[in-house]
Amino acid sequence: MRGFIRWPLLFLSASGIVGLSLWSPAFVQSQATVPASQFRQAAAEVGISPESLIVSGAHALAQATLSELESAGDEYTAIAQVRQQISTASATHEDLRRRLSLDPENQELLAQFNASTTQLAQLQQQLSDAQSDLAEVVLQGWTTPQRQNLEVWKSSFGRRVPAEFRVANRTEAQWHAIELAFIAEQRATQLGRELNPEQQQLLDSVRAEVEVITAQQALQLHLATLELAFQAVVTE
């Protein structure tokens, strides 16, 4: 991260050598740290979790990754500030939308609404840029394949499926079917019923994928250790 180093400037005066200090740009480590209470939120901004580290094949880099994240206070603060601006701008935008729906011929309201829409788009781009800045700090030791695996993981954010299912790219239709099947399986288990044969076949096929099997084995082996590592940072 770009910072500054104070270099001494010495010159002669009648009383001897006098020193001044000048700030010179250099690449130095940021001194700001992510507060422990916000560590998991900061991690989520770049898709980092015990599960994502494992399924991305980066569990061996966990300690270094968590250390880099902890030291990225400046980058996380930038994200938090943009998110606050987005929250405020979104409230304004929604209010303008409501008022415009009641008075659609009001040109002044329309102009304000259009300006608000543009502002929101700009803020979303700023958020994306700020998240990229944080990722560059946190993932600097990751290989390209590991970064690609993380992007695959992030693309299925919010899916109600086992973590190991998220190692593969799937279409929206595929995810929808898998989610429905998994939810139905849980419900059938609770009620002691048989799962629909088509849904059972779908889940069996997913669980038989090589990538899914590998991820499941890795999760069983490393998840407890990485959860402890996360917890150690959060409770510092």
Description of the structure:
This protein has 236 residues and is mostly helical. It has a domain at 1-30. Helix content is 64%, strand content 10%. It contains 9 helices and 2 strands. The protein has helices spanning 39-45, 50-55, 62-70, 73-102, 107-138, 144-155, 172-191, 197-207, 210-234; strands at 2-13, 16-27. A hairpin with a 2-residue loop joins strand 1 (2-13) and strand 2 (16-27). The longest helix has 32 residues, at 107-138. The two termini are 24 Å apart. Residues 1-30 have low confidence and may be disordered.
Helices and strands in order, then pairings?
Layout: E1 2-13, E2 16-27, H1 39-45, H2 50-55, H3 62-70, H4 73-102, H5 107-138, H6 144-155, H7 172-191, H8 197-207, H9 210-234
Antiparallel strand pairs: 1-2
Helix pairs in contact: 3-9, 4-5, 7-8
